[in-house]
Design goal:
Length: 267
């Protein structure tokens, strides 16, 4: 199994729980239950641990990532840092790529990779090349001043609530000719989708049905935003939800259909 495929299988277990057989004390025999690995509804119920310079031994080498973030013992985030003046890309080229090869067992559980030199800071998925690592410029609101810094990316992605939201609701896997690709929501998608859901809930309570407009530019990942929106509504909000997608071009029909069909489904 490739590292990306193993990561997808583990992600499904982390997200949806592990099926276990337990004694049925009422009817006798055995029954199947799901064991939750992470409490998504109550982030404070989970155990968060940050470890610096953890030594990990692979088949041939021992490597020491700068920071590894654990949730309930699972290493979900790996952060590699460079001193100011050294390009942040060096953290990816010289370290993260090496780690994925030499201590691949660490990345079976991985949710996010972060590379930074203090000023230039970027986050990406397990399968992303450097060109697909992206900046995280805002923490809570879309109208915040844009700031590219290590502080912003850590607070924006590794705050307990936001980290679990990113992992649970803003993670996709998509099959391509080149192989399996893992996609995580970008800053504008994360804030935009959450604001859209909040607006929809407000409209629902008021009873007028006008939830507002979600606006994004060409090439900004609108199709993925639609999937993030739909899967979070289906997972987190009670209701018999149906989604209608209207496009003005046939190629968009095909693109969006493939994007929805390729997402990781719950059992």
């Amino acid at each position: 199994m490739s590292l990306a495929s193993a990561n997808r299988e583990i992600y499904r277990l982390i997200k949806d729980g592990i099926k276990v057989s337990v004694p049925d004390k009422i009817n006798g025999g055995q029954k199947t239950e799901r064991l939750r690995v992470i409490d998504w509804e109550n982030p404070a119920n989970n155990d968060f641990l940050l470890v610096s310079q953890l030594s990990i031994t692979g088949a041939l080498y021992t490597r020491r990532p700068d920071l590894v973030c654990f949730v309930n013992g699972l290493p979900l985030v790996v952060i590699e840092l460079k001193k100011p003046g050294v390009p942040a890309r060096a953290a990816f080229d010289d370290n993260l790529k090496c780690y994925k090869s030499d201590i691949s067992q660490l990345f079976v559980f991985n949710a996010l990779l972060i590379a930074s030199n203090g000023t230039d800071s970027r986050v990406g998925s397990l399968t992303a090349d450097w060109e697909r690592f992206f900046e995280w410029k805002r923490i809570e609101q879309e109208n915040e001043p844009r700031r590219v810094s290590l502080e912003v990316i850590i607070r924006g992605t590794c705050d307990k609530n936001r980290l679990l939201d990113l992992v649970e609701n803003f993670t996709l896997f998509s099959e391509h000719k080149a192989g399996l690709v893992k996609i995580i929501g970008q800053n504008h998608q994360f804030l935009g989708v959450n604001n859209a859901i909040a607006s929809m809930q407000k409209a629902r309570k008021m009873g007028h049905g006008r939830a507002g407009v979600f606006w994004q530019t060409q090439g900004s990942g609108k199709s993925f935003s639609m999937v993030f929106f739909a899967q979070k509504v289906l997972r987190k909000l009670i209701g018999d939800w149906k989604f209608v997608v209207v496009t003005d071009r046939v190629e968009l029909d095909e693109q969006i259909a493939k994007t929805f069909a390729g997402r990781t489904r719950m059992d």
